[in-house]
Amino acid sequence: METVETKIENGIGWIILNRPDKLNAINLKMLEELEEVTKNFEENNDVKIIIFTGNGKAFSAGADISQFKELNSISAWNFAKKGRRVMDYIESVSKPTIAMINGYALGGGLELALACDFRIAAEEASLGLPEINLGIYPGFGGTQRLVRAIGKAKAMELMMTGDRISAKEAERIGLVNKVVSLSSLKEETIKFAGKLMEKSPIALAILKHIILYGNDSPLLDGLNMESLGWGVAFSTEDEKEGVSAFLEKRKAVFKGK
Ligand SMILES: CC(C)(COP(=O)(O)OP(=O)(O)OC[C@H]1O[C@@H](n2cnc3c(N)ncnc32)[C@H](O)[C@@H]1OP(=O)(O)O)[C@@H](O)C(=O)NCCC(=O)NCCSC(=O)CCO
């Protein structure tokens, strides 16, 4: 891989954006590689949780602006569609995903973090959607995901002013789940991933699907998805184990079956 590094450690699949001299700006190659490595991790049984992060002082400063000079309306549209599809794919992955935000998460970088299920940020991180300062606006799904994440008023403010906010402010408005010191970021993120790893991966996958797609559907459809998925969970060994463990007063050990 040219633009991303990967490793698997203790059930965690790490996807590390690796263009530190360009603050991990996302070019076409990185979009393609992100899609490929995410797919590999989704299909790899050794990977239970996927964590995205960046090498150097940024998570990612967004789409690679140096490529923009060559774009016209059609190629820009295609680039945005490609970026959007990759973010949609990352969002749809059946395993839990965490953005470990080690520094700048701007533009497409924040949009990548928004496609993840959880965002854990270092105190030093700075977040924002500054595309408006380039005479454009977020094109990798941010206009839709940010509104859903933090509500219309704050989302419009962030997108229309292009202002960057601190990790603490991002936590206050519900954009990130947790803020920790940079020195403890990896440890805290692994600890959080560990909590998820103790759960039934099948229940997590069904739950994630229903939260994501149920909330974008009419209420009745979302509620129907919930009850149907609930029934499906009862066909798993994990459900039998969870209930037995409770009744036998022991800790459940889920096998993902
Ligand atoms: C993130 C900023 C504020 C950091 O500033 P600073 O610390 O001063 O670092 P720089 O010298 O600016 O950057 C170092 C190096 O990285 C290159 N770079 C940074 N961001 C990008 C980018 N998005 N695309 C391409 N290259 C980038 C920068 O040119 C430097 O390279 P040199 O070769 O050393 O010159 C600051 O960098 C900043 O504001 N970046 C842009 C943030 C932004 O506007 N993001 C939105 C992009 S559009 C988008 O994401 C569309 C999808 O919705």
From TrEMBL:
Domain of life: Archaea
Gene Ontology molecular function, alphabetical: lyase activity
A GO biological-process term: fatty acid beta-oxidation
InterPro entries: ClpP/crotonase-like_dom_sf, Enoyl-CoA_hyd/isom_CS, Enoyl-CoA_hydra/iso, Enoyl-CoA_hydra_C
Coiled-coil blocks: none
Keywords from the named record: Lyase
Family that this chain belongs to: Belongs to the enoyl-CoA hydratase/isomerase family.
Name recorded for this polypeptide: 3-hydroxybutyryl-CoA dehydratase
